[in-house]
């Protein structure tokens, strides 16, 4: 996940160039996520091992819970990605949701 917003007018080639700039390269079987400044739209660039495809999602109400880390990128698990795409608080899933002390 890229922390900096993306211009949602960008197409596949420009999004791929942004992936290479931010992440260093586009690896097969990886998804790269970008949001707009208001975080109500998201684009996902996927490298499936054969080619790349670009998908977009827009929330009619509310906004995506986007990372605000000081770093330029944040890694997500599959469960966190699924939650993010639904507009749920993905930070509460995975390691962050484990209770270790009672």
TrEMBL record:
Origin superkingdom: Bacteria
A Pfam family annotated for this UniProt entry: TnpB_IS66
PANTHER family documented for this protein: BLR8292 PROTEIN, PTHR36455
Protein name: IS66 family insertion sequence element accessory protein TnpB
Native organism: Ramlibacter aquaticus
Gene name, Swiss-Prot/TrEMBL: tnpB
């Amino acid at each position: 996940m890229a922390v900096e917003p993306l211009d949602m007018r960008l197409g596949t080639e420009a999004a791929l160039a942004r992936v290479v700039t931010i992440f260093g390269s586009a690896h097969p079987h990886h998804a790269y996520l970008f949001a707009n400044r208001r975080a109500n739209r998201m684009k996902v660039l996927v490298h499936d091992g054969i080619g790349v495809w670009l998908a977009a999602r827009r929330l009619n109400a509310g906004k995506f819970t986007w990372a605000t880390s000081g770093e330029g990128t944040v890694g997500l698990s599959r469960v966190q990605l699924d939650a993010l795409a639904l507009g749920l608080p993905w930070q509460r899933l995975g390691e962050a949701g484990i209770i270790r002390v009672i």
